Amino acid sequence: MDFENKKIIVAGASGGIGGATCEALAAEGAVVIMIGRSEEKLRNQMEKLNGTGHRCYLCDLGIVDSIEPCISQIIEECGAVDGFVHSAGVGDVRPLKMSKYDFMLRVMNINFFSYVEIVRCITKRGAYKEGLSIVGVSSVGAQYGRQSRTAYSASKGAMDSSMRTMAKELGVKGIRVNNIAPGGTRSSMTADFDAYANLSDENRLIALRQYLGECEPSDVANAVLFLLSEKSRKITGTILNVDGGKMSC
Amino acid sequence: MTQEEKIAMLEDMLELDGGSLKPETALCSIDEYDSMAKLSLIVLCDDEFGKKLNGEELSGFKTVKDILDFMG
Q: Per-residue pLDDT tens for A93-116?
């Protein structure tokens, strides 16, 4: 896949999947524009990237009002972009009785509202190049019910639904919008989930469903690059599961 | 927060009648203290007391008093 000199924004660049995506893109010649909340983590991620010209931008995606100025700065300094990957997200596990509105809103802000806001900003005239491709990292958690995941699953379900509407609306501009839905993937987020795995028989049963085993962040990143690339030029409005077979049974 | 208030909070979390819990109550005797309740306790300790409760510490709780002591 040819990403030579393609400019790709990755939000959540210092996470497991986000980081693997940045590294894969850089290896294919892309200019990676990373957005994250921690300067230290972004700098550490930058050091892992092949090539030159990559950029870091600090932005707390939980503060949705701060996104438009950040994107404006990116476009001004880097020029129009070729792609966007939304890999930012929190996976807080919390029973329904503890999921009050402020918690729900925090998860929705980071996982969903920031995604829509970034898409809104980069699809304005002058902000994108012909053939812009947008990939959201959703989750199979949007496709089945699981205890203590109300906020997380709602946010990913919202990503999936809005992805379809945005794909339809942006198709006239030649812009493609798709999601990746990972299953269990080795990352710091799933490590947090796993910390409480022994508390629940449900977790153990769910793990057995992923009969090809746990995904690596690079497995998800490979699928992201496919959807960003010209090789998927006729694919839009769809969800590609990278789930080790979990949703097939 | 007084001990009585903390116990009331735990009773509410476990959906038990007021007065159901005493500091010496064994957690293994409480049917409602299941995996979901343990997750709720983790959230409660973080939200209300600013304490991060890990799985190992959680496993070490044997009585209501152990939880109250952790809350501080």
A: 899 999 999 999 999 999 999 999
When computed from its CA atoms, the radius of gyration of chain B, rounded to whole angstroms, is: 11
Give me the pLDDT at residue B55, please: 87
Kindly report the backbone phi and psi dihedral angles of residue A112, in degrees, each rounded to the nearest multiple of 5, phi listed first.
Answer: -120, -55
Record the pTM. 0.92
Nearest chain A Cα to B13, which residue?
Answer: A97
Q: Distance between CA A22 and CA A38 in Å, rounded? A: 16
Q: Measured between beta carbons, which residues in chain A are less than 8 angstroms from residue B54?
A: 195
Query: Each residue of A189-241: pLDDT tens digit?
Result: 666 655 555 556 677 777 789 999 899 999 999 999 999 999 999 999 999 99
Distance from CA of A178 to the nearest CA of B (A): 34
Q: Which residue has the higher pLDDT, A64 or A14?
A: A64
CB–CB of A199 and B43 under 8 A? no
Long-range contacts of A163-169 (CB under 8 A, 24+ apart): A163/A136, A163/A138, A163/A237, A163/A239, A164/A237, A166/A116, A166/A119, A166/A134, A167/A236, A167/A237, A168/A237
Q: Are strands A176-182 and A31-36 parallel, antiparallel or unpaired?
A: unpaired
Task: Supply the mean pLDDT for chain B.
Answer: 94
Shortest distance, CA B37 to any CA of chain A (angstroms): 8
